[in-house]
From TrEMBL:
The keyword Transmembrane does not apply. The keyword RNA-binding does not apply. Its cofactor is Zn(2+); Co(2+). GO terms for biological process: proteolysis. This is Cytosol non-specific dipeptidase. It catalyses: Hydrolysis of dipeptides, preferentially hydrophobic dipeptides including prolyl amino acids. InterPro entries: Peptidase_M20, Peptidase_M20_dimer, Peptidase_M20C. It comes from the Bacteria. One of its GO terms (molecular function) is metal ion binding. GO terms for cellular component: cytosol. Keywords: Cobalt, Hydrolase, Metal-binding, Metalloprotease, Protease, Zinc. Belongs to the peptidase M20C family.
């Protein structure tokens, strides 16, 4: 893997990415990558320190002739989403990412690649280490825990950064320049329930939903992809309504910012309904697969006989939960009235667990409009509270309001058009970029976000375009040479 990736152009970028990807860096477990980044800055002899929350800041003076330009902040996040295929044996806590080249793409073997936001971080590292790239004074800001709470950005205090312009390198289409993003809030519903002894004359079944694409719960939410939790709930609802199905255990989805790809349920039905249940469910499965034949051609739904569980969920609670999950909104809730084709508000029913008398449902609600974000969050809260759940909101973070009169935006648009012969798409995105949060303590900082093309982020299908990385690197180098002069 190492030489294959390291020989790609631009080598400065891919070598730093290979070094970074050798370091385990799960969200909330960034100790090793923090030390790696501090060692990197200290080895270069640059001012390097971490703040109270453990973001890492590295400062590099301007190259000769660039001292009169505004100081910039180049920013990326150190953590990565950890997702793997069920049949992939991999320990994210101890292993580096196993990468390979597939045509124009760099991929990982059965896991997420970490190009989100590893390519952005590697870009900054390459600039810091360079001796022949002209640039103004730089503050490199490497934040932690972007993927599971934005805690690095949320806890960065005002006054630490000196830069006037922020370049966030965390978007995923190379023809886009982002000037706004959605905020988000975690919606969590929990409750306890009584378990009952499995009735005599029952048969045990395992229902498995797998093979879905998954993806980023913000950037991919409009694509009509299947949500394993919603699909599973349809199967449970049908089985309960027609055959008195009872749930023993259920585990669906994983991370809040990933569209759930898999769900597994252990259930029972009365033995007398065996043949009728299997026949009826196959019709339901065929209907679901027909609905998703275009967006989810690899969808697999299996219903297999299994050992009889000893206990099942209380029927009254189960009915309420199934109906609440059916009622709970998933996907696009509202499109923006101000920016064409922009998802304004959405929800991802990300994680559902039923086991040992405890129920938990985790959602991530996003919106570029704060009031709309909480409108949808309250709709979800109402659905789950009606079935006796305790619902909490946590981890709320603001969106980033677009500034169409940005000075750095003008610079990037002109450079992109000169290099590519066409205008870039100036957009706001439906993901949680850190710009909105950082702007709360640095309201006067001019911010912009861009990056190379990355597909399938937050899923094992994550891949980074090699040709796009070359285009993006050329773009970065010219941006650095054209940072506006100090006032």
């Amino acid at each position: 893997m190492s030489n294959e990736i390291r020989n790609l152009e631009p080598k400065a970028l891919w070598n730093q990415f290979a070094d970074l990807n050798a370091v385990p860096r799960p969200s909330k477990k960034e100790e090793r990558v923090i030390e790696f980044m501090k060692d990197f800055g200290n080895r270069l002899g640059l001012e390097t320190f971490e703040d109270e929350i453990r973001n890492v800041i590295i400062r590099k003076p301007a190259t000769p002739g660039m001292e009169n330009r505004k100081m910039i902040v180049m920013q990326g996040h150190l953590d990565m989403v950890h997702q793997k295929n069920n049949d992939t044996v991999f320990d994210f806590d101890t292993q580096g990412i196993d990468m390979y080249v597939d045509g124009d793409w760099v991929r990982a073997k059965g896991t997420t690649l970490g190009a989100d936001n590893g390519l952005g971080v590697a870009t900054i590292m390459a600039i810091l280490e360079s001796t022949n790239i002209p640039h103004p004074a730089i503050e490199a800001l490497f934040t932690i825990d972007e993927e599971t709470g934005m805690t690095g950005a949320l806890n960065l205090k005002g006054g630490i950064l000196k830069g006037e312009i922020l370049l966030n390198l965390d978007t995923e289409e190379d023809d886009e320049i982002d000037i706004g993003c959605a905020g988000g809030v975690d919606v969590t519903a929990v409750r306890s329930y009584q378990e009952e002894e499995t009735p005599e004359g029952s048969a045990g079944y395992t229902i498995t939903v797998k093979g879905l694409s998954g993806g980023h719960s913000g950037m991919d939410i409009h694509k009509g992809l299947g949500n394993a939790n919603k699909i599973m709930n349809r199967l449970l609802f049908d089985g309960f309504e027609n055959f008195g199905l009872q749930i023993s255990e259920l585990s669906g989805g994983s991370l809040r910012n990933a569209i759930p790809r898999e769900s597994v349920a252990k259930v029972i039905i009365a033995s007398m309904y065996d043949e009728a249940y299997v026949f009826d469910m196959q019709e339901t499965i065929n209907d679901i697969k027909a609905e998703f034949k275009t967006t989810e051609p690899n969808l697999v739904i299996e219903i297999t006989k299994s050992d009889l569980p000893k206990k099942v969920m209380d029927l009254g609670v189960q009915e309420g939960v199934i109906r609440a999950l059916y009622a709970a909104h998933n996907g696009v809730y509202r499109m923006s009235a101000d920016m064409p084709d922009l998802v304004e508000t959405s929800n991802n029913i990300a994680r559902v667990v039923i086991k040992d008398g405890e129920l938990s449902v985790g959602c991530l609600t996003r919106s570029s409009v704060e009031s709309s974000k909480f409108d949808l969050a309250n709709a979800l809260r109402s659905a789950f509270e009606l079935t006796g759940c305790e619902v909490t909101f946590s981890g709320s973070y603001p969106g980033w309001t677009p500034n169409v009169k940005s000075e750095i935006l003008d610079v990037l648009v002109q450079i992109y058009e000169k290099q590519n012969g066409e205008k870039p798409r100036v957009v706001a995105c439906h993901a949680g970029l850190e710009c909105g949060i950082l702007g709360t303590n640095y309201p006067d900082m001019d911010m912009i976000s861009f990056g190379p093309t990355i597909h399938g982020a937050h899923s094992p299908d994550e891949r980074a375009s090699i040709s796009s990385a070359q285009k993006y690197w050329k773009f970065v180098l010219e941006i650095l040479q054209n940072i506006p002069q100090k006032n």
